[in-house]
Each structure stands twice: as structure tokens, then as C-alpha cells.
Amino acid sequence: MSPQDWNREIAEIHRRMNKWLEHLSPRRVSSCFSGERCWTPAADIHETKQAYHVVVDLAGVDPSSIEVIVDGSVLRLQGSRERPQIDSCTGIHQLEIDYGRFGRVFHFPMELDGDGARSEYRCGFLKVILPKIQRLQRVQVNPGAD
To answer: At the topology level of CATH, where does 29-81+100-131 sit?
Structure first.
């Protein structure tokens, strides 16, 4: 095995370990933009020629509490999910659902068209469509000698 193969293998093991450790935690907690502790929603990102499609699992979140910010090549999501009140609760047997503030930051390899971005919240999923900014490149044509 070449040194490059070893490096790739080690990087892949590192990536898998981080993903595994992330899922071990019953409460995926990170630091929100304000510095307070918050939970991190799961997300999928798909790419087409024209745009990135980001789908975020936000079940039970009031859509009016969700803030979507596109800045250059960065997408920031933040908001909160309120814990439902249970009247006359006499005990708790299990707590697995994250409540309170959430935040997530996604970095893309190119600038995004923030003005053309669209979002939709349906059935507990937030879908954000982020059009790519298509850069036109000008090529100067030099007259050839015939």
C-alpha cells in the first residue's frame, strides 16, 4: 500500500469515527452562534447542475421560529423547538427528543444566489433550494497568423 493510500484510509477511518461518535450522543449538542448550547438537526444535501437542495429534519418546529441566512457560500439555519407541556405529569420515563435552540452551518464550494434561494417547510422537513451563481468567463481571442 502506498503512502497516499494509507493517508486516504486514515482520513476515511477518521471520518467514520467522527460520524459514529456523533450518533452515539443521545443529544447532539453544539455551540450556537450566540455561544449558548443548542442541538444540531440532521440534514441531507443534494446537488444538481443549477442548485444545492438542503433538507433538514425539523419535526415539531414552528416555522415562524426558523431563520435561514445565505451569505456568500454559507447557509446558516437557526431557531428553536419548544417542549410540549404535559399537564399532571407524575414521572418521566424517557427523554430523547432535542428541544430548545438549534443551529446548523453549511459551507459550499461556490458562492450561492441568496436572492434566488427558496425555502419550504412541510411535514417536519425544511427544504432550502440554493441556486449556484454561474460565473461567466471571458476568453480573449487573439488573431491568428494565416
So the answer is: Immunoglobulin-like (2.60.40)
Nearest to 114 by CA among 75, 87, 56, 145: 75
pLDDT tens series, the chain, 146 aa = 777 777 788 878 877 776 676 665 544 555 555 556 789 999 999 999 999 999 999 999 999 999 999 999 999 999 999 999 889 989 888 988 999 999 999 999 999 999 999 999 999 999 999 999 987 667 778 887 66
Domain positions in the chain are 29-81+100-131
Q: What are the beta bridge partners of residue 29?
A: 39
- Measure the CA angle with vertex 45, ends 101 and 21; round to 5°: 60
- pTM comes to 0.70
Helix or strand (DSSP H, E) at 7: helix 3-24
> Strand (E) positions, the chain?
29-31, 37-39, 43-47, 51-57, 67-71, 74-81, 100-107, 118-122, 125-131
